[in-house]
TrEMBL record:
Signal peptide bounds: none
NCBIfam families attached to this UniProt entry: Gpos_tandem_5TM
Alphabetical list of InterPro entries matching this protein: Tandem_5TM
Key words of the record: Membrane, Transmembrane, Transmembrane helix
Pfam family, one: DUF443
The name this protein goes by in its record: DUF443 family protein
Residues spanning the membrane: 83-99, 119-137, 168-188, 194-214
Amino acid sequence: MGSEVDKFVIQSVKRINTRYYLFELHGRYYIADYSNPKDLRQYIPGMFQELQDHTTVYDVTGHEEEYNAKPLRWYQKSRNQKLIYLIAVAYTFNAVAFPDKLNLAMLTYDPRIVANWKLIILLIVISSLFIIVYLYFKKTYVDLEGKDEYLLVPSTNIPIKASKFKRLFFYIIFLICISAMLFIGIGSSSYTQLILFGLIPIYTTIFTRFLNFVDINNTKYHIEKKEK
């Protein structure tokens, strides 16, 4: 029998598609309408308080096997995000401490990168828009009509409330930092640095909502009835 604490920790998370997740909480099964590609707020993480405060979920207890949900892949599990930080630290150490023959930055050096910086930025913008359009038109709808509707609300690690102006200010600062990292990657004329400091931060920022579910390792949650 699980502990009392386990009742407040999300368990058995599976993915139905880009938009929906199936999980167990409080001994019941729910489907979370978590990352709707047609909701443009999903592509601007951190800007909208309501997306952090709660998630709409549907009670499907007794019918959980009907939705063809699949286990999360390794990169969709929040604990594996730490692997990215480990890779960044290891790469930085390699770039600083190793000689040219063992230095990944030097081994992947190509002067054409900085010479074609405008083309690289254009390709990043076009590819991001292409992915957004693809997600927008991708069929993800699951019929949950008639299922009881609730809110999944964090009980711990509760998001800090901030005014729209303050959130916009910090988001602009964040974008400036991301842009600076991109130009560092381009200016280095190194493919590895372009990927690590440019492409990965940009794409994970835009599409983070579609890559990972809520923090299931460090946060406890409870269910609230959704007001009509």
